[in-house]
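Reviewers asked in the last cycle whether our approach scales beyond single polypeptides. To address this, we selected a multi-component target totalling 176 residues and predicted its structure end to end. The input consisted of the following lines:
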Amino acid sequence: MVRVWDRVVRSFHWALVLSFVTAWLTSHSSQAIHHWAGYAAAALVAMRLMWGVLGTPYARFSQFVRDPVTVLRYLSAILTGREARYIGHNPAGGAMVIALIAAVGSTALTGWLMTTDAYFGVSWVEAAHSTAAHGLLLLVFLHISGVALASVRHSENLVWAMMTGRKRKAERTDVA
Ligand code: HEM
Ligand code: HEM
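The resulting structure, written as structure tokens, was:
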């Protein structure tokens, strides 16, 4: 086994899941909890942006953010069942990390705007927050489906890997 996800990445991930689920479930019931859960998600994302530059090798954006052509090539390899196993995030997973971080950030930003004097009650801001939140939910579903698909295709439990930080070491055809 090799160590892949450090403690910061793992804590970030599960804390983000908790704050997202809490923000979602309280969006119509408790304004106080909803706001704090949203701010927590925003703070986690800010921390992850720094860790993406300063963190351990597999936590760095430079390790897993690939150009769009590589991402498309990886997605088409999935269709023909020839996609490689990656020790870090695969190219589609890397793109999803960026999309999720951007979506959490814009959801929290538009939510906060709704509470400011300047934008309170402004309908386009409310619509933007609702659209960002629903877009984020869609990405989360795609994200969980991608995790499930990669887990099945490479016979490994990626959810467990995000808990322990460890994955099976690279074999000949894998991308370390
Ligand atoms: C219970 C539902 C979820 C499960 C089982 C899950 C599972 C995972 C797994 C296994 C990975 C690692 C993927 C890989 O091996 O490349 C991952 C990464 C990630 N997930 Fe989730 N996830 C869940 C929900 C969420 C939610 C709700 C969000 C955001 C709102 C999220 C955001 C992320 C991010 C940003 C990463 C990248 C981690 C990093 O490099 O810091 N996940 N997730
Ligand atoms: C990950 C973060 C967040 C998520 C997933 C989220 C999600 C949602 C959702 C689904 C709604 C209902 C929208 C609709 O009716 O179509 C909502 C409403 C709202 N959110 Fe957020 N939100 C987040 C962060 C925030 C933050 C940081 C704030 C402000 C500090 C905020 C303030 C509000 C307000 C004022 C409403 C309207 C509540 C109402 O209609 O009673 N949200 N949010």
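The helical segments are 7-25, 31-54, 61-64, 68-79, 91-113, 123-153, 158-164. We regard this as preliminary and will revisit it once experimental data from Aim 1 are available.
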